[in-house]
């Protein structure tokens, strides 16, 4: 097996998550944003993936009423392609089952076919476009939904 374990995100993980975020997104989140998600935001659920004790990825979502909205999912570039993304997304879906969430949505860059493949694998469907959603390059977002989670 690939020795990847999934845990809840805690403050002690934030340094590693910030590094992965900076390597993964053009406009990474601040330390304060992650700390707020952990300490204040009652709607937030975040998980991390560790391989042999090293934090290699994280994912999170907000749960409001019966809907979930995935905010982020990222794996350290050196550890991509070994199944961590699958496990992180499965962990979010499992939380949805426990918390009686029936629909799950997200936005993904139109050019990000790798992430779109991941989401499609788990039953997400394209349901719309947000024009010029991403401020850095004005790229469109594809809106995806998974119903009957
Ligand atoms: C998207 C991301 C989280 C996937 O994580 P990962 O650990 O590499 O994914 P996995 O190895 O678990 O692969 C999961 C699925 O993703 C898709 N995928 C992964 N790598 C792929 C590639 N190089 N080409 C096409 N599809 C790919 C496949 O559907 C794969 O399913 P499989 O395991 O049956 O082949 C990772 O590429 C990443 O961090 N990207 C940068 C951040 C990002 O774009 N996040 C999404 C924001 S919406």
TrEMBL record:
<keyword id="KW-0963">Cytoplasm</keyword>
<dbReference type="GO" id="GO:0008999">
    <property type="term" value="F:protein-N-terminal-alanine acetyltransferase activity"/>
</dbReference>
<feature type="domain" description="N-acetyltransferase">
    <location>
        <begin position="4"/>
        <end position="149"/>
    </location>
</feature>
<dbReference type="InterPro" id="IPR006464">
    <property type="entry name" value="AcTrfase_RimI/Ard1"/>
</dbReference>
<keyword id="KW-0808">Transferase</keyword>
<dbReference type="GO" id="GO:0005737">
    <property type="term" value="C:cytoplasm"/>
</dbReference>
<dbReference type="InterPro" id="IPR050680">
    <property type="entry name" value="YpeA/RimI_acetyltransf"/>
</dbReference>
<dbReference type="Pfam" id="PF00583">
    <property type="entry name" value="Acetyltransf_1"/>
</dbReference>
<comment type="similarity">
    <text>Belongs to the acetyltransferase family. RimI subfamily.</text>
</comment>
<comment type="function">
    <text>Acetylates the N-terminal alanine of ribosomal protein bS18.</text>
</comment>
<dbReference type="InterPro" id="IPR000182">
    <property type="entry name" value="GNAT_dom"/>
</dbReference>
<keyword id="KW-0012">Acyltransferase</keyword>
<dbReference type="InterPro" id="IPR016181">
    <property type="entry name" value="Acyl_CoA_acyltransferase"/>
</dbReference>
<protein>
    <recommendedName>
        <fullName>[Ribosomal protein bS18]-alanine N-acetyltransferase</fullName>
        <ecNumber>2.3.1.266</ecNumber>
    </recommendedName>
</protein>
